[in-house]
Write a structure and sequence with these properties.
single chain, two-stranded antiparallel sheet, about 0% strand, globular, mainly alpha, 7 helices
Length: about 180
């Protein structure tokens, strides 16, 4: 199989997987909004962040597979931290959500900055014949992806100590923990 055929196959595979997860995300968000409407509950920050994250997913379809690594510290992590802040009233845990929120926003901003300034002068992106100086992209993407993975794991594991303390029968407690862990997928 030629290199071009391999790239094409991988792009189609990524598009298929992204389409599946996008459909699941949209169904989940739709059910969330419907539940809010039925219960007459107001929307909160985590709802808006989730909507923003879903709207940004549309951008993934353009250049998917070739510029996929430009997306770093996901809105999903910020959504989960805001969600945790809302449902867990413990003061000490809320401090942790503030700290983690600041770390995520700083990581997101730094990722955008490095991605935007990875080659100087900036206009060399759309004028490739201009002499330019670029960072080593493979190293940046490896470091960015590794840090993003570490942040993902931390965010997903954040509520586990609180969930273990829930006064529920063991099967229900395990179910709740598995449900929260699946939020990181």
């Amino acid at each position: 199989m030629t290199y071009a055929a391999q790239v094409s196959y991988h792009q189609r595979l990524i598009i298929a997987i992204e389409t599946l997860f996008k459909a699941l995300s949209l169904i989940s968000f739709g059910l969330r909004l419907w539940a809010r409407h039925i219960s007459k509950a107001k929307l909160w920050w985590d709802d808006y962040i989730m909507g923003l994250a879903l709207s940004k997913r549309k951008a993934l379809h353009y250049g998917l597979g070739s510029h996929f690594a430009y997306l770093s510290a996901s809105d999903r992590e910020v959504f989960l931290v805001l969600f945790y802040h809302r449902i867990f009233p413990q003061k000490s845990f809320r401090r942790v959500t503030y700290i983690m929120g600041v770390i995520l926003v700083l990581f997101l901003l730094s990722s955008w900055l490095v991605t935007g300034l990875q080659c100087l002068p900036i206009h060399s992106f759309w004028q490739p014949d201009i002499p330019r100086t670029c960072i080593k992209q493979s190293s940046y993407y490896l470091a960015n992806g590794s840090l993003n993975l570490i942040l993902d794991v931390i965010v997903v594991l954040m509520p586990i100590p609180l969930l273990v303390k829930l006064q529920l029968p063991k099967p229900q407690k395990i179910g709740v923990i598995v449900l929260f862990l699946s939020g990181g997928l």
